[in-house]
């Protein structure tokens, strides 16, 4: 009976988060390929109008993916185990950088110059562009919502920084493809990481909530230590006898 209950136990929050976010990291290229398939009876447009339509579609798909990012980050914030969350974010950071590095190679080999003059026609470039912007935005959200963990990871894993700095700069140069909230987020992340000089009025709007979660985590750890100490004291005691 006990065995049956274990088999039907729902997956933990941490496992759910890993599945959701790793799916987000790999789904963009497949989505982009599907949008490149010509529709039946689609009229032939000029190269300029086709490029404009592709760009608008790209923006819509990116906006949809951003909603998924927000849900994934909210799921992360529900975790109450600091060290487990730290390990998960560290793993995700490495995966994000791996994906960005791969797409960066495609961009550089194609000699693509980030600007707003024209949207790329090559499918591989569009996939790489989507991958870089989406992964940069996702990890940017994590940095702002979980600043202490993010700073700790980036200071410990120095190799991640150069790729992240490159991708943030790339995203800023391609901001004509981003929605306003993502543009604002990128600017905040650049200042949060001190990549650019901070505005005198800069503040991380999620910092107070992050600090509150950090304090709650410390309180929980103290309570667990006290409870553990009490349990140990309840064990057999040697009576003190005065002679």
From TrEMBL:
<feature type="signal peptide">
    <location>
        <begin position="1"/>
        <end position="31"/>
    </location>
</feature>
<feature type="compositionally biased region" description="Basic residues">
    <location>
        <begin position="220"/>
        <end position="235"/>
    </location>
</feature>
<feature type="region of interest" description="Disordered">
    <location>
        <begin position="204"/>
        <end position="243"/>
    </location>
</feature>
<feature type="region of interest" description="Disordered">
    <location>
        <begin position="32"/>
        <end position="52"/>
    </location>
</feature>
<keyword id="KW-0732">Signal</keyword>
<dbReference type="Pfam" id="PF15002">
    <property type="entry name" value="ERK-JNK_inhib"/>
</dbReference>
<feature type="compositionally biased region" description="Basic and acidic residues">
    <location>
        <begin position="209"/>
        <end position="219"/>
    </location>
</feature>
<dbReference type="InterPro" id="IPR026321">
    <property type="entry name" value="CC134"/>
</dbReference>
<protein>
    <submittedName>
        <fullName>Coiled-coil domain-containing protein 134-like</fullName>
    </submittedName>
</protein>
């Amino acid at each position: 009976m006990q065995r049956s209950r274990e088999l039907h136990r729902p997956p933990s929050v941490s496992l759910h988060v890993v599945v959701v976010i790793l799916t987000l990291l790999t789904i963009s290229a497949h989505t982009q390929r599907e949008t490149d398939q010509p529709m039946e009876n689609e009229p032939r447009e000029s190269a300029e109008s086709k490029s404009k339509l592709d760009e608008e579609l790209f923006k819509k798909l990116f906006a949809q993916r951003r909603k998924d990012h927000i849900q994934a980050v909210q799921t992360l914030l529900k975790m109450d185990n600091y060290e487990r969350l730290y390990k998960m974010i560290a793993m995700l950071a490495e995966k994000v950088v791996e994906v960005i590095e791969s797409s960066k190679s495609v961009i550089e080999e194609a000699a693509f110059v980030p600007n707003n003059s024209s949207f790329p026609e090559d499918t591989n470039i569009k996939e790489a562009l989507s991958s870089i912007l989406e992964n940069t935005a996702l990890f940017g959200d994590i940095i702002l919502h979980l600043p202490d963990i993010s700073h700790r990871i980036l200071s410990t894993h120095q190799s991640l920084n150069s790729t992240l700095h490159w991708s943030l700069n790339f995203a800023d140069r391609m901001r004509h493809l981003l929605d306003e909230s993502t543009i604002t987020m990128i600017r905040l992340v650049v200042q949060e990481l001190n990549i650019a000089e901070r505005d005198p009025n800069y503040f991380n709007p999620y910092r107070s909530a992050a600090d509150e979660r950090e304090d709650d985590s410390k309180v929980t750890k103290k309570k667990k230590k006290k409870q553990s100490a009490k349990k140990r004291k309840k064990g057999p005691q040697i009576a003190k006898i005065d002679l």
